[in-house]
Each structure stands twice: as C-alpha cells, then as structure tokens.
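Example (one chain per record):
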Amino acid sequence: MSRYNKPVNFKTKDILLQAVVLAGTIALLACFIPRDHSFLQYELNHPWPYSQIIPDFEFPILKSDEQLAHERDSIHELYEPYLQLLPLVESAQLNRFRSDFRQLNPQEYPVAYRSFIEGRLRQAYERGIISNSDREVLIGDSVHNVQVYYGIEAQSRSLARLLTQKEAYESLLADTDTLGYSSQKLKKLNLNQYLEPNLSYDKAKSEAEWKGLEEGLLTSSGMVMAGQSIVDRGQMVDEKTYLILKSYEHALDQQRRQGTDDDLQLAGQVLYIAVICLGLLLYFDLFRRDYVSSLRSVTLLLTQLLLFPLLTNILVSHGMIMVYLIPYAMLPIFVRVFMDSRTAFITHMATILLCSMTLKYPYEFLVTQFVAGLAAIYSLRELSTRSQIIRTAILVTVASLLVYLSIDLLHGRTLMKGDGIMPIEWNYYKHIMISGTLLLFSYPLMYFLEKIFGFTSNVTLVELSNINSDLLRKLSEVAPGTFQHSMQVANLAAEVALKIGAKSQLVRTGALYHDIGKIQNPAFFTENQAGSINPHDQIDNRQSAQIIIRHVSDGEQLAERHRLPRVIRDFISTHHGRGLARYFYVSYQNAHPEEEVDPEPFRYPGPNPSTAEQAILMMADAVEASARSLKDYNEETIGALVDRIIDAQMAQGFFVDCPITFKDIKLAKEVFKEKLKIVYHTRISYPELKKKDEGAEGSVVTPQLPTA
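Predicted structure:
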C-alpha cells in the first residue's frame, strides 16, 4: 500500500458528492461524444490512411454538392410559381369608379373622361396587378415566368409584364395630355384608389410545384454493391472514391436513424466511460486516497479528463483539425509536476482511451499517445528549470515520430513513391511535430494552473529558494544566526528526502522559510545573540515561552503577507507540531516545585506534521539546533543525540498523522548522523612557525603539512 494511502473516513455526503461528480462526468462525455463514429480523417487526392473498407450492404453513390447545385440551377429555369387571379377585384373597382364619376361636374369631366379611364383601368387589370411583397418574393427566387390560374385553367405570363400598384397608376396617366385628356384633372380624381392587386401569390401551390421538380432530380449517380471494396490502405482518394466514401458515411447515418442503434450505442458509450472512470477511481482508492480528499486535486484531474476528450470530439467532428495536432502530452506533464508519475500515467491512459472513442481507427492514435505520455513523464522526474520543458518537448516529439514510423513500416508503407507501393503520408508527421512545439506552452500554462488550483511547482519552489529574495535577505540581515540555521536544516532535510524518496526541493524550500517569524524578535533566540546579554534573563519563563512560541504565528503572518504558497506556510506551522517550549517549561517547573504546572501555555499551536516532508523538517530542525549544544563532537555523541531527539518525537506522537514509515525514520537517522559528523568534524591543529636558531633573526623552518 502507498504511504499516501492512509484510510480516510468519508462521510455520507462526501460519498454522495463523489457519486454525483462521477455521474456528471459520464453524462457530459456521453452527450458530447458522437454515436455514429463516422468521422474519418481523409482528404481528396491523398492516400487512404486506414484499413480496407468493404460494406456489407448496398447504397447509392450520391452526387456532389456542385453537381446537385448545377442541376438545381437547370431545373430552376423551368420553375414557374403560381399566382391566383381574382376577377371580382376588377369589377368591384370599376363599379366604384362609375358611381364616384356620376358625382362629378359634367362640365369639367365630360363622359369621354369616364370611357378613357375605364379603358385604362381594364388594361391594367388585364396585365395583372401584384402587391409589392409578392413581387419581392418572386424576384428573390429569380423567377422569370409565372403561372396565373383561375379555376382549373392556368396561363404562363412573364413576371416583367405584371404591374405593381404604383406602376399601374403611372400607366393610367401615361401620354394623357397628348391624347387630349388633362393629366391635372386626372390626378385630382385620385385614381390609385381604384387600383388593387388582382393577382395573389399561392405559396402552397408554388412550393408543391418546386418539390415536384426536385423529386424528379436524381441525387445519385450509381450504386455500390454489398461486398464491393471501396478503398484500401495507401490507395489514392480520387474524386470518385471521395464521393463513394461520403455516400457510405451518409448511408451508415441513415441506417442508424432508422433503427434503434442510437440507443444501443449510447448504452455502450455510457458503459465504456463508466468502466474507465471506475477504473480510475479504483486506482485512487488503492494508491492515492489523499487526492480524492483534496478538492484542488480532484478539480485539476476532472478538468483535464474532460477537456481533452471534448476538444477532440469538437474539432474532429467538425473536420477542423487532425487529432495529432492536439498536444495530449500536456496532461501527463501537468499531473506529473503537480502530483506524481504514477497518477500522471494512469490519468493519461484514461484520457486517451476516452479520446479514442471519437476515432474510427484508434490503434495508431493510442500507441502514439501512450509512448508520448511515457516520454513526458520520464523526462520530468524533477522539473526545476525552463530548459527541461524544451528537452521534454523534443523527447516527446522524437518518440512519437519513431513509433508512428514503426507502425507505417509494419503496415508495408515505404519512404519512396513507386508503382504499386504505398508511400508514407508525411502530413501526420508534420502534425506530430507541431504538437510537440505546442508542448512548449506548458511552461506559461503551468503558472496559471498554479494560481487557479493552488498548486506549487518545483520551478516556483526553486524561485522561492533564492536567498536573494526579499524575505530571505531580510532574515540574513536581521537574524543571521537563524538564517545559517535554516540553511543547515535545508541541506539536512533535502538529503533525507532524497534518501527516502520524498520531495527534496519542497522540503528544502520549506526549511529556508520555517523560522522567518524570528525576524520579529531575533535577539530572543540564542543563535542571534552576539554577546553575553540574554533578554530572557529579564522576564518570566512564561513570557519567554510565549515569545519563542509566537515565532510560528509571526512566521505565518509574514508568509501570508509575502504571498508564499500554502504548502510553504504549512512547514512554518508544523515544524514544532504540538510540542513544548521544553527549556522554559522545565525551568518554570524547577522554579515552582510546589505548583502543578499547566503545559498548555508552553505548547506550540501546531498542528503536527501531515506529510513526510513536514516530518523530515521537524526532525532536521530539532537535530540541527540540538547539535549546536554538544560539547564534544564525535560519532558516539552525535549518534546518541540524533537517536534521543527523534525517538522522543516518535514517543510524543508527532508523526502519527503523516505517511512516514519506521524504515524512513531509520534512514533519516543515518543521514543525520553522517552529515553532522562531516559538519562538526575535528579540525587539524596546524603547527606554529619556529625559528631555526634563536640567535639568527629571520631564519625559519617551514613545517611539513600532515598528509591525509
């Protein structure tokens, strides 16, 4: 069992929340992933990249959109929409005119005017009057002729001969002055009130006519029989083959729409996604329960687990991009940097398995991305510099190119073109190289992920461990003894972390900042006292203990003010755990033997360490500080000191809440003993220069230095 897999007592609401998140993930992926699997990536005049296709049913070869558009243009010349003739409109308006004309002054408007106007009105209605809206509809359809019907009879007329109400009015007044009729008198009659549309656009009859013409248009240009080979791997996709492939996809889609395959495929997809997600949960239950109980870890994993499958589906389904352009290796890079290698590999495999659902032939994709993920994880065992991302991008690209080349060679494809030889499709290799280049954006994206999810990468830790940073520089100036102590603790703790497989850079950075609270009262700590004056001599042991203990809370406040990551602030609060300021506690007891002393005022606020790195820092801090008080530095005294301090910490239960083993503690003791012996080794006593002859001035003998 993993050291990080300490049992977690989940409450009922936590289990329900996990179930809801799991169900939501499955539902979201199932909704967005297509159920026809017909999104094949192929291009006209390019080799077919997949295996041979032999349909088990016959289907028609559909014409191309260009062919259909051309034929539709041809039948459009034959299309004549229908207009209904309304003869009652003409008779009603003529009767209105006669009735109104009788009311006019016969001296001003003789009978000849009535006959002239009636004739002009009949001519306009015979040509046909149409409304402006109907005229715009017909012009928009690029119509030249129309069918005017009344009853069962229909007559073809030119659209250009039909009049709008405005045009009909203008025709009434045309050339009236030359014919002896005053146009001014005619305008006074307001003749446009007798002009109403007598032709009405019949939309239903017109659409039926167009539908009939379209039904007569053949959408196919042949048939493909069941068992007939459509295309084989390496064969060039010419125009005819391209149309057949499109027709095959259309036929598959029609079959699915007609049957119940959609429901079955949906059930299959849900089951497939559920199995992968449950397998991922099983991994976390067996090895990393600490991630399941961490909201930021769950959020990061779910975001990436959903993002890449959804992005793959959206881009591929719309034919916008080849899947090899997507930098899938970013996922294991981020998970490896913020979590661990094993989780990065498992999450990467689950993600590419979900992404493969979108693809028709996922074998090449799965193998390529599997190797790319392994290369990314291997190359980022310890990210600390920008150059490592460049190295990772190169390694991932080279590994992906080699594995895809091996697959091509296994399928009999060759580097050179020739008759009957299937050449390698180099576009895929270009896409893989572009994807490798996009991996370089992992470095700036890592910064945003840190801010969004609250993680801290090794790059950030390296930047924080720079002793020229504002906070560490101030510590070295105000409390130089504490600064030197922190440096020693950082070196000791980092060595132990490397020995037991913990995060060495994390514990090194945490050690540099664990005592920054001593900046506030540096003189109260012995390592910063230059002379014989000790300010604790002037105050009570209780007050001294409170000042010493307060360096933890002061350190947390300074860390928060300087925006140090949460993971570093945790080292400040846990490096003493719930221990006692023992010197002042014992001193107070000795000074008050008759009093039962309450230990709580002398106790650090804690909490106790919860990670292996925090436990290492607690041990290193106590060992390094106590080692300074030794009078004799030899193997026995150093070994006894290390054993006594760490055994006391274990006895007080400081490590019960963190994933550190007895073996780890044994190795830590060995490292401390070895390193402290080197730090406090016995120096060689150099001999003084002596005169060769006391009576001869300036004559000296150079002593021989001792050899190792």
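Caption: The radius of gyration is 45 Å.
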